[in-house]
Model the fold of this input.
Amino acid sequence: MNNKKKGGIKGKRQHIAERSGKPAQKNTRAKDGRSASSRPKPAADIKARRAQKTKTSPQSLGDNSQYIQWFPGHMTRTKRQIQSDLKLVDAVAEIIDARLPLSSRNPDLSELIGGKPRIILMNKCDLADPKVTKKWVEYFKKQGLRAIELDCKSGRGLGGFVTAVRDVLSEKIIAWEAKGMKNHSLRVMIVGIPNVGKSSFINRISNSSKAKVEDRPGVTRGNQWFTLDKNIELLDTPGVLWPKFDDQAVGERLAFTGAVKDQIMDVEQLSLRLLEYMQKNINPVFLERFSLDAEEISQLPPHELLELIARKRGMLISGGNPDTERAAVMVLDEFRAAKLGRITLELPEE
Ligand SMILES: Nc1nc2c(ncn2[C@@H]2O[C@H](COP(=O)(O)OP(=O)(O)OP(=O)(O)O)[C@@H](O)[C@H]2O)c(=O)[nH]1
Ligand SMILES: [Mg+2]
Done:
């Protein structure tokens, strides 16, 4: 597991390509519209990783766990900007990841938002278990929070947004109308963790492509206004995490879904942890995807399961040994694209 040197998923893919003389494996995430020119330049990437390294280089916590934390300086600046822009908005839409309805809620943001009217947009529903998503909507409802299921890939759920905003602002709207201010414009700040789909949501709902979208965390770098229609304005904000995950399981789950920069982690270790999860939570799509047998894999140490998967996919290096680096990248990519099943990693308490 010597992948710390090579800088995460993309760096390793390149490394593999260089070693094998073949072109780098196609990045499934490039399908999301990320052009080669928009990828971070390797030098810049290395520089960024070096800057991170002192604070966040992965430390082994025993077994396959590692210490994960990512809170670069731009997130501190974003928090300050959000705080100062809050006075400009009427409501806040907090976008969370439907696969992680707890861990994808930033406790610092909740504190900043305070009593501002807010709605929760459970995005990436297409990747989550639909039955569990319904349970989460109920869970939030019991807490007095309006949550909407959303899929910015297909646009499903977008229709409920404006109604939900009007609902949470109904008292204000009545007060404005009493003062003769009909059609008072509504301003909504869109907040959330990195890579959760804030900019995708804005593009999709305003039918444009003005907000920059890429499949990596940390794309949006400043607050930016967008007009939805003459009555609604949306403020896009950069994704923010928080300085310390009290529970390392939270950091790990955020890393599984792509909210944490891959370059600060040992991707192979991360994929072993994901495989451990898959072994404990067997689902048929995963088994079928890699032609695995539930009983056969139940007792395997995760690294042997990764080797098995590498062999099944014909990922071999010289000497016929399994290429676990490449298989690890593939397992994570396929998980993130829900090719291993629509998996929600957190369940509401019954
Ligand atoms: N499958 C799926 N992918 C989505 C959805 N919404 C967004 N994405 C993808 O998620 C990735 C990140 O989207 P962005 O809109 O850039 O996320 P963001 O929250 O603005 O990210 P930062 O600006 O980095 O904080 C892109 O590859 C999108 O195509 C969704 O509902 N389903
Ligand atoms: Mg963005």
Q: What stands out?
A: Strands lie at 91-97, 118-123, 146-149, 186-192, 224-229, 232-236, 316-317, 321-322.
